[in-house]
Amino acid sequence: MTDLSALIQPDKGQAARSLHLVDKKGFEPWLSGQPERVRQAVAASGFKADGYQFILLPGEKAEDWSAALGVTNANDPSVWCLSKAADALPEGVYRVAGRGPGRAVLGWLLGQYRFDRYRKEADAKGPRVLLTDDPARIAETVTVAEATHLVRDLVNTPAADLGPAELQKVVEEIAADCGAPVTITKGDDLVAGYPMIQAVGQAASGDRAPRLIELEWGDPANPRIAIVGKGVCFDSGGLDIKPAAGMRLMKKDMGGAAHALALARIVMKSRLPVRLHLLIPAVENAVSGNAFRPGDVLKSRKGLTVEIGNTDAEGRLILGDALTKAAEGEPELILDFATLTGAARVALGPDLPALFANRDDLAEDLLNGGEKVSDPAWRMPLWKHYAEMLKSDIADLNNAADSPMAGCVTAALFLQKFVPENTPWAHFDTFAWRPSAKPGRPKGGDAMGLRAAWELLKGRYSR
User: Fold this and answer.
1) What is the distance between the alpha carbons of residues 131 and 82, in angstroms, rounded to a whole number?
2) In the chain, % of residues over pLDDT 90
3) Which residue ranges does the chain devote to CATH 3.40.630.10?
4) Which of 252, 316, 345, 451 is catalytic?
5) Superfamily of structural domain 142-461
6) Active-site residue, from 114, 242, 379, 460
7) Residues of the chain with CATH 3.40.220.10
8) What is the rounded distance in angstroms from the CA atom of residue 397 to the CA atom of residue 404?
9) Which tens digits make up the pLDDT trace of 428-454?
10) 31 membership: H or E segment, kind and range
11) Is 169 considered catalytic here?
12) Which CATH class, in words, describes the domain spanning 4-133?
């Protein structure tokens, strides 16, 4: 991982190139105060202070150049307003002219993300360092940016190099760095204790065999919280196999696990006073002679029986067993992340995770936190009347609704069956992928809902 801490430094008056933030309202007053050489450069370039517009400004000497950046509001920089510049500028040290960078520091770090693991020639551009007048926030900003880079790296990695064993290794490395023990349940113990995780993953063997990865951290006397992430390292759809186009991006089906692990890392690195329980059911939904079948009836860890209406609705099965285990620890809060349904994407598109919560105050805190840190979500209903769509003729419930309607709602209602009614719980049905690039948010894997969840935890549990 890139050393992001080197890309933000306290502003102690050291030499740095100036970045001028200019919005449409202030463009003409700003331009009128510039020397003739700058006005000519602006005229030649067509710079009008449009959002993310960028221009290098000549100084008195060739080496004295600075830059102007078009922003929406120069008095209140957004998270992303420096992201394009962070990507485009040459190596060097920079400061925002006339004010501190504020929350745009995060976008500066995220704008320098690269995934070069498989490229013969990696990006050779050197670091672009930003000075900040708020050094107290550097540590948290770096930790959050590192977590976002972690999600991107994990989701971007092909399934051949990130199966259940490799995902386990990443968890163990982070746990060792943070002083947290890890428990792995697989084989006969998984069969006996987590039958739905076992069933979904049993068609894969060896290093790709299913397992439940658990991490616990923090003082047991502190409030207990559980974070759960869907870790389907590749989803073929099972015997209800996906078409080629539907399978193309299924390396990202462990995006929920990536979010959960990244959030857990923020909690541990920030020394949040909680007792953390991280659970990642890690599987590959493969096809072989012993793959679970449509029509099978599985017994869950909770004791509920589940008829398999569709083997491609596998994420909710492994989460059901993991949520049951999380609830056994009697946490005061459960958060889960999953790339669960295409229906959520049809409803909300790629940018907005669907948020479900069994408490209004929990949903409100998550939405408000997301708004504050530019990590939006949209609340969807746990509409109990749709639970009848999950009825089975021979089991306690079916894993897939008979109707194609309300797919993300019925999936969330399935998960709710495994959460105690008196336990606050929120579920993010997130895409974890950007089909097109935006400043600071490259095409590919991305964290969506991560910062909103951290804002909630920080607000509730920071001393």
Assistant:
1) 12
2) 95
3) 142-461
4) 316
5) Zn peptidases (3.40.630.10)
6) 242
7) 4-133
8) 17
9) 999 999 999 999 999 999 999 999 999
10) helix 27-32
11) no
12) alpha beta
